[in-house]
Specification:
heterodimer; A: 592 residues; alpha/beta; five-stranded mixed β-sheet; 18 strands; 39% helix; globular; B: alpha/beta; seven-stranded mixed β-sheet; 41 helices; 46 strands
């Protein structure tokens, strides 16, 4: 009889929600009682909106408890673990009964995330017990040729999950074909999009899968050295990667004559990036690894020809590598059976924003955006009106509500002007100002521009200035045209993806929400009632009771009125801080 | 390149062939298409940041930066279409939207004529007055006049005003100073006159506009005739401006400067009166109307027709016309108005004896349009002011004469259209003043009585007047309604200023010239001008605390009590120093790179607009902390060329990029000053900057001014770089590298880059000097040569010693040894540069690997070659090969902390080069690792060498070498031996003659001589150290380093020189002769043995008992100070000759400057030789060269090398700085600049 197993989701998101306390509490309780159960850490389970998560797997089945704090942990411990009575109120998922959260899982297919939340990422044995390292073992055991490995990857149809969407097998083939005394394989773990955490979840939840993917890649292209370029802002990921690397070395998956195969030498190290967004770009990443300033250069030559230290190099994203062992082990078909004609397999998305069920989800390509948001995501918070979704982070674009039937595949998404990107999906409701949203993303890219290309360095700054002006009510006739002109020029005249895509949020918002821009510029109004300087606060005399709370709280002393009399706001003095709006108990403050 | 390898490209629709690996930029350039680029430098790897070089390539997404896009078969490239142009313009617009800088100073921008103030101030600073006037006259032909009476908008705009003392630079005073100097000088500036075009222009009026038109047009080859209504020239200058401000003789001189160009002036000719357009049309191809605004206006109140009330200009003109001054003795005069005419009237009235003079003005002093200095002077002279007062009525006496004037008080209301507050009468404030005379100085009108005459006879248009009664013209070209008639000055603008009239004359002349040349009449193309004003309004805060405060040199004036006459009040700056001091106050607001800036060039070409993307901008303090290099980040466009050249060529990595995005800027590594980095002060960053962000931190005012350039060969080290001197009248402004035979990339090092200032040094010796009673007295050349000849003759031949510096030209060296052998009949001839160092250096040039092979090597070894400082251009080649071709560099040095450590791959610190090399040679031979085949085929003496070397104690050699251990030494030896293309670079500065011999032995043992990119590169300290050997500066060798025991050669010499016998060869070496005091008379050319001595006392002894010492040099050196006779020396640019570099490349240079020294070095030598030989018939450098070539031995091309065993090291250096004062001065000044 198997021991009852308790899994605590201890990825960064869980920890920040307080999972460590829960974990410690459970351990303490177990030790006190010497209860014969197994409590392990695991990675991201995916239901970010229900963190901290604790899963109990006993003889009867599995129970995923959500939003657990220390108090609830004690309760579950007492009732479920000690007395065998699950606390159904807290269960968010079970294989025994339905919960209202089940929609979150319906439609998900876990390939990349197959082990996340299932195994202990710090324990190689657990990975191995879930068919880990079997892919590379099989290759070595069956003496599968390099070209055959590449062919399998090619047949699976997997395309670069970092956002580029370039067929991974082809990329490998280029690097394989370029002869050199030394080759490199690099994992791009410089996830920098605001709101994206797919790579982090993978690295924290299943580092061995990424490492195995790299080993298979190294074998295929003939690389002897590998680098995982991970942003320093992911300390837990780096820690778990290093633990995993040590374990893999110890077990002979890395090092010389791997798995006993002669001349199969490969080792791997983690290079911490200083968190420059631009270092996600291949050539800038290489410059950064070489110790130079992270600045892109013109391609060609592509890294497959002249990459790290001038040698042929292959660079893939974390998610791409995480899929590889699965594909090798289960065959190309196991992956390509999902998805659409040109976009195969599954894709992990980080679902955030004004969405009820935020989290990391993995869905087969071809699912509609509408389904992701309204089925998996459970719809919009407070059931407000869905307005748009930003796909692809600052390099991507928005897809408006009326295009929500767009299916998730590279070509369909590109057709809207957005991009698939690495999987950031920010959901916006009617209270989001699209001009301000574009301004937010542009502010990000402007700050992250490396400063090399004129258009990206100065152009994004100028676009941001115009957007800021518009949101502050200083927009001028012709601003939209100026933005568009600059946007196209920046796209055309930048060396790397950062500049080439930076204007996308502006272009797509202008495309789908031009009227919002016009309202800001011509009417000096923000239709979403978001841009502070364009708001007017007035007092509804019908509702005002003269309680004086607003006047007392007004930091600008802009509200006049006698006690028990209707108050009014002096517009010239109002600083639009919204304090009165928040404080008024009678909903008498009107925003327009 | 094989044809078949070529790629087929379609470039702008044309089929062209491209070379594989070529970029689009290179391809286009080869096909004569200039693509603008700011971040590309052929010396550096492509970078692509500016995006100005973009092109469109069919099938490629977006635009492609042509500098880094390699061509591919079948590419279709468009370099000039609208899309490309638009992208380039946008890139430039964006760049200049964050280019907080001024191209031009506000003084120049404000001047209606655009006079280049900053430029002429720079010239005045250097005493180049004629040149300053030349520059001024490009835009203003009347500097002496304007220097006195201009209203000086420039000074109002001057940024000096922002500083505490609040006084502008004395721009006008300086102009006057230079103009007066020019007028007085013998070499007065005269513009170049082009050949006659046969066209004739009639100019109506000899005022400032007419004179200027003549000045601008006559040099273009058009005959200009001026018709003047008055009997004398000058117009308003003569008839309006009183003499105490502008003396007539100054006016006459400046008019003469116009007429001497060929301009005729016909007086008493008034158009429409005694001169008809009918006649002009017949005789002239074009007419320019510069008629002025002649008619005065009256006060315009009741009673202004009274007697003794007249217009100010009539008052002034009448006196000039009649030559009679008004007598105002004891009278009261009122002048109505607040302009400069009012000032002239009131101050003249004082001079006419008036007891009381009032100026009545309806606003306050602040609003007065008159020049403040005039107001100030008038007050000194006793003029009283009635501000906020307006005449209401003139009250006459019975005879109709002025009696009193009723005035009313005013107050200021709202500003009117002119921006000045409108005066409003205060009711009931009327008052009356008693007066004898009233002068109205409130405006003039243009008189166009000739209109009918012109229009009657015109057949190609009609002359019209505008609604103000002035001549109507096209405002940009000043062409009138009649095609061939142009107009300029007050007659067009209404009463204005002299400088405006001149500015208009320039425009009208330009249009007239276009008309006469059959060109379309177009205004000048507008240049792009970056302006700080486009970013923000400047204020005192931008200047206070950043500039030194210096009080203005005020104009000396006549004492107030000495002014009751018409003598000039302003006396002009009295001396050069005062003017120089005032020039120092110029803050040089304009950019020094305005003439060379690529950013500006392209911005003009693409009509960039600095305000199109106006927004936030970066403001940085300017970094002056480096003595030679100035960093102004405000101008930086982040092309990173400086950063990259410092890395890829220099290897110093002294500069880097800081921050990201819009906040990125270039800064010295580690964030401090450039002086705290590995900066080598080579100035290559300056050479590559496409704008003015990194410039030279000059000790003088750099201007900028348009410079002339000349080419020459560097006379510092032995690499032999070609240089370009940028100068004005031989004052050298800057030096740049020319793409030369040796320095193919045009790179140069710090010596020529910053060492040129010595040529501008005013301490230069220019005349022969004879020591009389411990003092030097200038003597004539003849006398000097006579003294030398007498001294030579008065001694035994071998008591004479001749010394030639390694900086001299081959021709000069040749003559020195000829003088010794023919004149003094001695072979005591050598160079201190090599004294006492034994033999060995003379063959260093042999088997030298050409510098350009450095990039083909497989490894480079630097052994005793600190090539970051000495011979740095070779250092650049080595580093560039390391950066671009990945050729490793190993350093073997005995210097504790070599400054090369950061740019090599491996370092061996040893103690003795000599023992190190010998130990290696020992090991290789001992182990039998020598290249026997090579030795057998190509070398002599190996067996003897082997026997002698192997007899030495190997362990002792190793321990003396200072190499850490035997294994490392042997490993080094084996690695070197195995290296296919190994180049060892060494320098005589650190290597003894015997080390160089042993290095040759090593190269022979390993068989590395005579192959491509393999072997030795020897470097010498001085530009022509090799010439010393080749020209026979040796007691035992003659020209071609021919042994003097060679009888046949000596016979040829005797014949050529036409001498009876050849002097005996002295077996004692020169050092011995010197030590034993056997040389009594010294003739030292271009060396400073005392100043450069390592052990001064030891060297001083040689000269202690000298009977006579002659030294030739540029400056007072420690050696010249001891001389009995000093001859001045000429710099290479001041003469012709040739230098032979360390690789035996002979490079000729031509005389470029008419030097300060009357007799060039070779001429001096020939003159001395003539004292001994009646048949010396060499006359010039060509003759000398011919004689040298005739004496040179036929080339020995056996190709055999000989082993040379040496017993011990002979390191015996006696002098630093190559024994050259020029190098010494640079080295010392350099160290001083950094240690301040």
């Amino acid at each position: 009889m198997e021991k009852t197993k308790v899994l605590v989701g201890l990825a960064s998101c869980g920890i920040s929600a307080g999972a460590n306390k829960v974990y410690n509490k459970l351990i303490a309780l177990k030790q006190a009682d010497k209860l014969d159960i197994e409590i392990t850490k695991t990675g991201c389970i995916g239901m970010c909106y229900r963190e901290p998560l604790v899963e109990i797997i006993d003889q009867s089945g599995s129970y995923l408890y959500g939003e657990i704090n220390e108090e609830k942990a004690v309760e579950i411990y007492d009732k479920h673990l000690k007395q065998g009575e699950p606390v159904k109120d807290y269960v968010v998922k079970s294989d025994l009964f339905e919960t209202k959260d089940d929609t979150f899982w319906d439609g998900q297919v876990k390939i990349a995330l197959r082990h996340c939340g299932v195994i202990d990422p710090e324990n190689i044995d657990e990975y191995e017990s879930h068919d880990g390292y079997k892919g590379i073992k099989n290759i070595v055991a069956e003496n599968v040729g390099q070209e055959q490995v590449i062919q399998t990857v090619l047949d699976s149809g997997i395309r670069g999950r970092g956002g580029g969407g370039f067929p991974t097998g082809l990329k490998w083939r280029f690097a394989y074909k370029n002869k050199s005394d030394k080759k490199y394989i690099i994992c791009n773990a410089d996830e920098g999009d605001p709101g994206a955490f797919m790579d982090r979840s993978l690295l924290e939840g299943d580092p061995h899968a990424v490492i195995e993917g790299l080993i298979i890649g190294a074998y295929a292209i003939g690389a002897s050295e590998g680098v995982i370029y991970c942003r320093a802002e992911y300390p837990l990921a780096i820690k778990r990667l290093n633990i995993a690397l040590d374990q893999a070395r110890e077990k002979g998956y890395l090092g010389k004559n791997i798995l006993g195969r002669k001349h199969f030498n490969f080792d791997l190290y983690v290079k911490e990036g200083a968190g420059a967004f631009v270092c996600g770009e291949e050539t800038a990443l290489i410059a950064s690894v070489e110790g130079q300033r992270g600045m892109p250069r013109k391609r060609p030559p592509f890294p497959a020809e002249a990459g790290l230290w001038g040698k042929p190099s292959n660079i893939n994203n974390v998610e791409t590598f995480a899929n590889i062992p699965y594909i090798i082990l289960n065959g190309a078909e196991s992956f390509s059976k999902y998805g659409t004609e040109k976009s195969k397999g599954t894709k992990v998305f980080a679902l955030t924003g004004k969405i009820k069920h935020g989290g990391a989800v993995e869905v087969p390509m071809g699912i509609s955006i509408h389904d992701i948001i309204f089925k998996l995501g459970g719809g919009i918070i407070d059931d407000k009106k869905f307005k748009a979704v930003q796909l692809g982070g600052p390099s991507g674009g928005c897809i408006p509500e009326y295009l929500a039937d767009t299916i998730v595949d590279y070509d369909s998404v590109n057709a809207t002007g957005a991009i698939m990107g690495s999987g950031g999906m920010v959901v916006m409701d009617e209270t989001t100002c699209m001009v301000d949203m574009a301004r937010f993303f542009l502010d990000f890219t402007r700050k992250e521009s490396c400063g090399k290309c004129t258009f990206c360095r100065v152009g994004t700054k100028r676009m941001l200035e115009i957007l800021t002006r518009i949101t502050e009510g200083e927009g001028e006739e012709g601003d939209i045209e100026k933005l568009e002109e600059l946007a196209y020029q920046i796209k055309d005249n930048s060396l790397c993806g950062l500049g080439q895509t930076a204007p996308n949020p502006v272009l797509t918002t202008i495309k789908y929400f031009r009227h919002e821009y016009e309202a800001h510029i011509k009417d000096k109004k923000c239709p979403a009632l978001n841009c502070k300087k364009l708001l007017t606060y007035t007092i509804d005399p019908e509702k005002c009771t003269g309680c004086t709370v607003c006047a007392k709280n007004c930091p600008a002393n802009a509200i006049d009125g006698e006690r028990k009399q209707v108050h009014f706001i002096r517009q010239d003095a109002c600083i639009k801080c919204g304090m009165c709006y928040t404080k008024c108990k009678f909903d008498a403050i009107v925003l327009s | 390149m094989k044809k078949s390898n070529q790629l087929n490209i379609i470039l702008n629709g044309e089929n062209v062939k491209g070379n594989p690996g070529e970029t689009i930029l290179e391809l286009a350039k080869r096909h004569g298409i200039e693509i603008p680029t700011l971040c590309n430098d052929p010396r550096l790897k492509p970078f692509s940041s500016c995006f100005v070089c973009v092109v469109e390539v069919e099938g490629m997404k977006g635009m492609q930066p042509s500098c880094s896009t390699k061509i591919q078969e079948g590419m279709k490239i468009e370099t000039e279409n609208e899309k490309v142009k638009k992208a380039r313009k946008t890139a430039l617009d964006l760049l200049v939207s964050n280019h907080y800088a001024d191209c031009e100073a506000p003084c120049k921008q404000t001047c209606p004529a655009g006079v280049d103030v900053q430029g002429y101030i720079s010239l005045i600073e250097k005493g180049l007055y004629n040149e300053a006037i030349g520059l001024i006259k490009q835009t203003n032909p009347l500097p002496a006049i304007c220097g006195r009476v201009c209203v000086r908008p420039c000074e109002l705009a001057c940024r000096r005003n922002y500083l505490d003392e609040g006084a502008a630079v004395g721009i006008d005073y300086l102009k006057r100073f230079a103009a007066d100097k020019d007028l007085l000088s013998e070499t007065r500036y005269v513009p170049k006159i082009e050949p006659s075009t046969g066209k004739k222009v009639a100019i109506i009026g000899a005022g400032p506009g007419g004179l200027s038109s003549g000045y601008f047009l006559q040099p273009k080859g058009h005959q200009c005739d001026i018709f003047e209504a008055s009997p004398n020239p000058g117009g308003w200058l003569r008839y309006g401006i009183p003499e105490y401000r502008l003396p007539n003789d100054i006016l006459d001189q400046e008019v003469a400067a116009v007429t001497e160009l060929g301009v005729n002036i016909f007086y008493n000719k008034k158009l429409g009166d005694n001169l008809s357009y009918k006649e002009l049309k017949k005789k002239y191809d074009s007419v320019i109307l510069t008629i002025g605004s002649q008619r005065g206006t009256l006060i315009g109140c009741e009673g202004d027709d009274a007697e003794n009330v007249f217009s100010g200009i009539d008052f002034l003109r009448n006196m000039e016309m009649t030559g009679q001054k008004y007598d105002f003795t004891g009278k009261t005069v009122a002048v109505v108005g607040g302009g400069n005419t009012a000032m002239d009237c009131c101050r003249t009235s004082v001079r006419c004896g008036a007891e009381k003079v009032y100026v009545i003005y309806r606003r306050t002093e602040k609003e007065m349009p008159a020049n403040p200095i005039e107001i100030h002077e008038s007050k000194i002279e006793g003029v009283e002011y009635m501000f906020l007062t307006n005449p209401l009525k003139i009250n006459k006496d019975k005879e109709g004469k002025l009696k009193t004037m009723t005035c009313i008080k005013m107050e200021l209301g709202e500003p009117d259209s002119s921006g000045r507050r409108r005066p409003i009468p205060i009711e009931g404030s009327e008052f009356e003043i008693e007066l004898d005379f009233a002068l109205a100085a409130i405006g003039q009108k243009t008189e166009v009585s000739f209109l009918n005459d012109i229009n009657k006879f015109s057949d190609n248009g009609k002359l019209e007047v505008n609604r103000w009664g002035d001549i109507a013209t096209d405002e940009n070209t000043l062409q009138t309604g009649i095609q061939s008639v142009f107009a300029a000055g007050d007659g067009v603008t209404g009463p204005a200023t002299i400088i405006e009239a001149i500015a208009q004359a320039k425009i009208a002349s330009r249009s007239c010239h276009q008309y006469l040349s059959g060109l379309p009449i177009e205004p000048e193309q507008k240049e792009f001008i970056s302006r700080k004003d486009n970013f923000k309004e400047l204020s005192s805060d931008d200047f206070l605390g950043r500039y030194q405060e210096q009080m203005r040199e005020e104009m000396p004036v006549l004492a107030a009590d000495k002014r009751k006459n018409f003598e000039e009040v302003e006396l002009g700056y009295q001396d050069k120093e005062v003017a120089e001091h005032e020039t120092a106050r110029c803050m040089e607001c304009g950019c020094t790179e305005i003439f060379t800036c690529d950013l500006k060039k392209y911005c003009t070409q693409y009509h960039a607009d600095q305000k199109r993307f106006k927004g936030d901008f970066q403001e940085y303090p300017i970094d002056f902390s480096h003595p030679f290099i100035e960093i102004d980040n405000n101008k930086c466009i982040l092309c990173a060329r400086c950063v990259r050249i410092c890395n890829e060529v220099v290897g110093a990595n002294a500069l880097g990029l800081v921050n990201r995005g819009f906040d990125t800027y270039v800064a010295p590594s580690m964030g401090g000053s450039l002086t705290e980095t590995n900066c080598e002060s080579c100035g290559l960053c300056i050479s590559t900057c496409p704008t003015g962000a990194i410039t030279e931190n000059t000790s003088f005012k750099p201007g900028p001014v348009q410079l002339d350039t000349v080419n020459t060969i560097c006379n510092y080290c032995s690499v032999g770089c070609e240089l370009e001197y940028h100068h004005k009248s031989a004052f050298v402004w800057k030096v740049t590298g020319k793409e030369g035979l040796i320095n193919k990339d045009g790179n140069i090092c710090r010596y020529p880059k910053f060492g040129y200032t010595i040529m501008n040094d005013s301490q230069r010796i220019t005349q022969p000097l004879l020591k009389v009673d411990d003092d030097f007295k200038a003597i004539s050349w003849e006398k000097a040569f006579e003294v030398i000849a007498d001294e030579i003759k008065g001694a035994e031949p071998d008591e004479n010693g001749f010394f030639a510096g390694a900086r001299l030209s081959n021709e000069e060296m040749y003559l020195i040894q000829k003088l010794a052998r023919v004149g003094a009949k001695t072979n005591n001839i050598t160079s201190f540069h090599y004294v006492g160092q034994g033999r060995g250096y003379e063959s260093n040039y042999k088997a030298n690997v050409p510098f350009e092979d450095i990039k083909k090597a497989s490894k480079t070894y630097l052994l005793g070659a600190e090539i970051n400082k000495d011979n740095a251009v070779v250092g650049f080649m080595v580093n560039n090969a390391r950066e671009i071709e990945n050729i490793p560099v190993e350093l073997i040095t005995n210097i504790e902390e070599s400054a090369l450590e950061h740019k090599v791959d491996q370092i061996f610190k040893i103690k003795s080069y000599y023992h190190f090399i010998k130990a290696i040679n020992y090991y290789l031979i001992y182990k039998g690792l020598q290249n026997s085949l090579f030795i057998k085929d190509r070398c002599e003496g190996f067996e003897e060498y082997k026997t002698e070397l192997l007899a030495e104690d190997y362990q002792k050699l190793i321990s003396a070498s200072g190499m850490c251990c035997q294994e490392h030494l042997e490993e080094f030896a084996e690695n070197y031996n195995k290296e296919m293309n190994a180049i060892i670079i060494f320098s005589e500065k650190y290597i003894s003659a015997n080390v160089s011999k042993e290095l040759f032995n090593l190269a022979m043992i390993t068989g590395k001589l005579g192959k491509t990119a393999s072997g030795l590169i020897s470097l010498k300290e001085k530009n022509n150290a090799q010439g010393l050997f080749d020209m026979g500066i040796s007691s035992k060798n003659g020209v071609g380093y021919t042994d003097l025991t060679d009888k046949k050669f000596v016979k040829r010499l005797i014949k050529k020189w036409n001498i009876k016998e050849f002097p005996e060869i002295n077996d004692t070496c020169t050092k011995e002769l010197l030590n034993e005091g056997l040389i009594k008379k010294f003739y030292i050319f271009g060396e400073d043995p005392i100043g450069c001595a390592i052990d001064k006392a030891k060297i001083q002894k040689w000269f202690a008992d000298a009977e006579f010492m002659m030294v030739q040099d540029y400056f007072m050196t420690e050696t010249t100070k001891q001389a009995d006779l000093i001859l001045p020396a000429t710099f290479p640019v001041e003469t012709s000759g040739s230098f032979t570099n360390a690789q035996k490349n002979i490079q000729q240079f031509e005389k470029q400057f008419k030097g300060k020294i009357e007799q060039e070095n070779y001429a001096q030598l020939l003159a001395i030789i003539r004292n001994f030989s009646n048949n010396e018939n060499l006359k010039n450098v060509d003759d000398i060269r011919k004689e040298i070539f005739e004496l040179l031995p036929k080339k020995n091309t056996s190709g055999q090398y000989a082993f040379n065993y040496t017993r011990k090291d002979n390191w015996n250096k006696l002098f630093k700085h190559g024994c050259d004062f020029v190098v010494k001065k640079f080295d010392e000044d350099f160290d001083k600049a950094f240690n301040q």
